[in-house]
Every structure is written in structure tokens, then in C-alpha cells.
Predict the structure.
Amino acid sequence: MNNVNSKDKKVDLPSFKSSVSKLYREPMMFTITALILLCIIMALFTPDFMTAANISNVLRQVTINAILAVGMTFVILSSRIDLSVGSIMAFTGTMMAAAMADFGLSIPVAIAIGVFIGALFGLINGALVAYAKLPAIIVTLAMMQIPRGLGLLYTGGYPLNGLPQEFSIFGRGYFLGIIPVPIIIMAAVYLVAYVMLNHLSIGRYIYSIGGNEEAVRLSGIKTKLYIIIPFVISGITAAIGGTIITSRLMSGQPMAGEGFELDAIAAVVLGGTDIAGGRGHIIGTLVGTIMLGVLTNGLNLIGVSPYVQRIFKGLIIIAAVYLSSRKRD
Amino acid sequence: MEKIFEIQNITKKFPGVIALSDVTFDIYTGEIHALVGENGAGKSTLMKILAGIFTPTDGKVLFKGKPLNITDPKEAKDLGISIIHQEFSLVPYLNSYENIFLGKEIKKSGGFLDRKKMKKRAQELLDRIGVTIDINIPVDHLTVAQQQLVEIVKALIEDPQVLIMDEPTASLTESETHKFFELILKLKEDGVTMIFISHHMNEIFEICDRYSCLRDGIFVGTNLVKNVTARDIIRMMVGRELGDNQYPEKPHYSKVKDKKVILSLENFNRANVVKNVNFKLREGEILGVAGLVGAGRTEIIRLLIGADKADSKDIYLHGEKIRINSPDQALKNGIGLVPENRKTQGLILNQTVKENIILSNMKKTCKRGGFRNRNDENVIAEGYVKSLNIKTPHIHQKVKSLSGGNQQKVVLAKWMNTECNILVFDEPTRGIDVGAKYEIHKLMRNMADQGMGIIMISSELPEVLGVSDRILTVHNGRITSELITEDTNQEEIMIYATGGKDNE
């Protein structure tokens, strides 16, 4: 297997051309291609689709799922899963609302409390997985229940209203009068995630743990720490999602976000990330989320019933993951 | 003679590499045919083509005169072609007979499993090889050697006409190998054709009729084994004359014996596996650890680096007591392990050469704030690719497409990049060809010469004798002797490694 052309021996950084062709070998390219095709089809069917207003609308609708999917990408890359994000999102949102409405705390303090709670739940998830060595699917399945129960217990099952008017900026506001604030938040979250995964050593460790945990451990890396961190990140992104949804609804909704964990997982795998961990890309996750959003939006515009839409969604997930997994092997 | 396989102009390309190029030769019915070549020569690839796991890019294979058109291993098995892989394909939680009959269970009417019959048949076959394995316990409780035997029985259950074996004796002890060869010769009498990959010349001369040699994916030649010597075969494999010295030169022991002790292990215990182990390591020496597979050699080292929990252990580094509870603490103290199994413990196969090399020491290249410096990373990786002569198209190649020897060098590079002071090598050259072996031994010697302390666990006695300055033998979790290499020999090591002196 050592027959190597001398011209391949060059060890310079890959040229632009080769990085394009490398990109094309990425499984997420299927999703990108599919997204473009989908957009073309939608544009042909409905003239309303390709308007600035509608595009901004689609993006605004996907922000929460897109942000939850960021944490989910970290967790899945490390070859784990997090089913608790929907519940954590609802609970942190409710607690922020409570901090403002019931305790009169300021907006920044309330958000800080929410994010802290999200991180704390993530830490509990991660610690149980890393130290107690429980399977992530079981730990986070249990953690779907606990914050949900706490939220319902606190509110008695009713929405918490009476939030300060300024709080609405995170869900309803516009930056410079045109760009919705949630989109800015989403972009910022993706930027941070992109840098962490691609330019910090922590990203290498997370990918590596998904690739071969034992090898990483024997390489003298604190594997337990890097198993926990993705869950903490996931808790934090859930709290950011909680901020936006609470702001959008201007109330703390203890029952919000049911099923969001599954949408987040769908977005991640649609984006070409291997559900077994170790391989994937954060940009793919963004594309996957947008694709789910475009699909819903387009089908709505065309007038397809929501029932049929679910069937479509399921088929598309299977097709995309099938194609990207074939590409991978 | 009748031909069972006619391999005609086979070419196999993988992205970035040509594994086989225009290979043509025949295999005769009923012979034992050795396939030789260095790691990465394309032997395994060719075997996998014959077994239907790969399809050739170009060329064809005739099986009994008819074109072999198979695309998966099942079809090969139906034709009577069985393969025993280098890596095991056993289900760890199933016991031996369940593994042996996986996919071909014997059933009673109504589809119920006939466990009695399966157990009986499995037991018969195991008896025939002459090994005692409790067939009722899960295979992950068996030793590696026992697992290998289960693997062989699993292939035999199919009554194959052709049996392809990729280094079947790699993890067998000498007596097990001997029994295994008896079985092979029995199968030969039954008319089974066997294709055999091995790096051990003596095995080839013991049981094979003919051999064919591949080098860098190209067919070099074929001959009757009885017409040649081991030297001829090795020359054919490496394409050059090997020097007389198979092992790098080492200093006279008197130069090493008074050097400073850098590491002392005292009172190492772990229930039933490691029993009251004490030893010292000096700077600049290579300490060989010999023993049978399963004697507890790896376990001692795993306690040292904190990969497993010890019942008791005291570690002194430069005379100072230190605590090591996990591999990262070991690394912090400058102690690293190049593990036994590079694929499951040493490498992240889906990542690139560079990413594997820099993994253990990312701090070295990171800028402030933990930002990665890709330029520095590339420079370091390229440096090791060059200095260790790692054969890869570029540093961004995934390690899974490299050959075994080159993969091992990537693991070495990873540890060289850590600036560890003490390195433990567990079977550093298992499944690696002659040329790469020498290079790896030389690297180890260079490290020792630079003042590092090296511990090498090895099951190959010539390697232990050829490379180490001092030798410990381990039997049943205990250290049974400490020998100076210059004053000992294979027999003496074997006596201690098998606990011989204990029984006297």
C-alpha cells in the first residue's frame, strides 16, 4: 500500500482546489445539495418562498432548534446523546421568568441564573455519564423528567407572566431594525461553537473521544472532563434557547419544548454528523436545521397538511442519513 | 497440478494508494501456500479479495477454473472459502460455541436451537485441536490465545475447501502454535487448501509447500519453500540484503548497570493478576519484560500508569514518591504507554496522521487561550513522518488506511512528541515486518541513549534478548527472575516465564 505518487508526497497545506474537493467528500455536502434543491423546488412552487421576508421568517423559526442542536452536536460528536435539552430549556426559561416576575431581579441576573441552571443540569448529566458510567441515553432520559417536574411544581402548571417589557428583545427584537435578534444570537452561538470545535484543543479532544475513547485515555488526556464538557455546553445552549422562547412568548412556559430534543438530533444527523460520534461538522448542523425549517415553511406555503409534513420529514431524514453514511464508507 | 485459484492481473486501488498492482500467480489444490511480504505489501488486501471482502479494481480471479464473482464473505463461504482474520470477529458476550455457530446454528424442528448438539460438535472440534476451553463462558473471559483458537474452530465448522489465515499464530504460545500446526497438517491430509500469512520464517519452513512474495503491491516471485532459505525469502521481501545484525547495537551492560534509578515500583498488587511486584528502572536502559500471554505483564504496566485500579502500589520517580491514579497523571510525570493493540488503544483510526501525532501534547503547539496553531502542528507532524520514515501520502491521510508498521510508527510519534522520560512499549512490533521492526528497535535504543528509561513487554524471546539490557520474567502475576541479557539465553528465560523454577 505504499505506492505513492511523488507528487502526492507534498505535505504543504492542501490547496484551495483540494480543500473544495475534500469538502465535497464531506457527508454534509448531501445535505447542502439537498437544501439547495429543496429551495429551488420551493421557489418554483410558491413565489412567496424566495422573498426576504419569508427567508428571515424561516431563519427566525429555526433559531431555537438551531441553538439546541449546537449543544447536541458536541454531545453526539463525543459519541453520547442528550435527550434532556427540551426539558432543560423549558425549566431554565421558567426560572428566568420567575427570577424577574416573582423575585424582581434584573434581566441580566435572571439570564445568568437561567444559564447557570442549564449548565448545572448539564454538569449532572455529564458527571453521571463520566463518573457513574451510566449510559447517556438513560441519564438524559431521566433528566427529561426532573427539570420538567420541577418547573411544573414551581408554576403549578400555569405559565408565568408579568415579565419586564425590555425582556422581549431577545425573542422579538430587531437589530438595526431589520435583523431579528434571535438570529444574531444564533450566529454568535455558532461562531463560538465553530471556534471551539475547529480551533481549540478541546474540539480535538471531543472528536477524538468519539473516535476512540480508550486511545484518548491512554494518551494521557482527562477523558472524564471532556465527556462532561459537551453536556455542560448542551445545558448552556438549552438555556440560551430558553431565553429566546421565554422572551418570544413573554412568559415562562413549563411545558415548552416537548420533543425539541428529537428535532435537535434530527438536525445534527441531517447535517452529516455520525450518530456514533467522532465525525461531523457544526456547519452541517446549521444546514440540517435550516433544511428542516425550509421543509416545514415550504410545505406550509404550498398548503400541505401538517400530517403529511411529518411523513415528509421522516422520509427526508432517512434518505439524507442513508446517503451520507454511504458516502462516509 | 490442479489449480484452485488463478489470480490474474489483480489491481486494487484505494483513495490515495494502490494496494495491489497487476498481481498474477496461482494457488494449487491441496497445498499450503505462504504469502509473504512486508507490512503494507498488500497481502491482507489480496486475501480479502479472495474471500470476497474486497472486489478488485481490475483483473480477475478464477476459482476452480471459473471466474470468482463474489461481493461478500457469505458467498465466499458458500463456495467453501473461509478466512481467519488478523483481528478477531467474535461477539464478546457470547460463549465459544455460540460464537462458533453464529449464523449457522443447528436447529431442532420448529426452529428451536439445539444447544446440546452445538456444544457437542464444538467440543469435538476443540478436542481435535487438542485445547481445553470451557465452552460455556463468554469469550471475552478467555485469553487472547484461546479466542484465536475459537476463531479457528469457527472457520473449520464450515468444512472449508480453502482456508485463508492472516497471521493465525500471532497471539499463540509456542505449544499452542505446535498444536495448531498439527491441526493444519491434518486438514491438509483432508485435502483443504490453505493460504497462510506469517512473519515467522520458521513457521513457513515448518508447514508451507510454496510461497509467493509481494512487495509494495507488486508480485515479486513464487517458489517451492524447500528450494530456498529464509535469507532468500527475506531478501525477496525487502528487496535488499539485510545486515547480519537483526537488532541495533547496544552498549555493554557495565555501562548501564550503575546509572541512576529513575523509577521504582514497589508493592504492586491487584487481586489475582499482579502479586507483590517490585522493580527498578534505570535511565538509559531498556528493560525487557518477558512472559507468556496472560502472565500479567500488561497488567503491571496498566497499574503503573493508572489505567487500572491497584490494590496497592508505591511509585518513586527519581526517589520521590508520586501518585498516579489515571493515565493523564502518568503523562504529567513523564510516563507513557505505547499500548499493545494499536487499533483499539493506540490510534483514532478515523483521524489523520497529524491529528493522532499531536493528540497527547496539544499544549506544545497551542497559542495563548488554547487556540490551535495549525502551522506548528503540521511542522511537527511532518518532522515525525520524515524522521520515522512513516509511509503516508501526506500528514492529512487517515491512519486507518496506513499499514500496521506505519500505524505503529504514528503511535510512537505521538509519544515522542510528549517529551516523556519513561516510555513503556507493550508488544511494540507485533504483526510488523522485519524492516519496520528494526527501525522501531533503533528508535527505542536512541531514546535510551538520550537518557530515557524504556520498558519493553514482548512475547518474542529473540526480540527480548536482542533489544533489552536487562530482563524481568513474569509468571502468574509475579516477577520470577531478573536476568542480565548478556548472561542469559532463551531456555533460561522460558524456564522462568513458565514458572519452571517454582515447580522444582
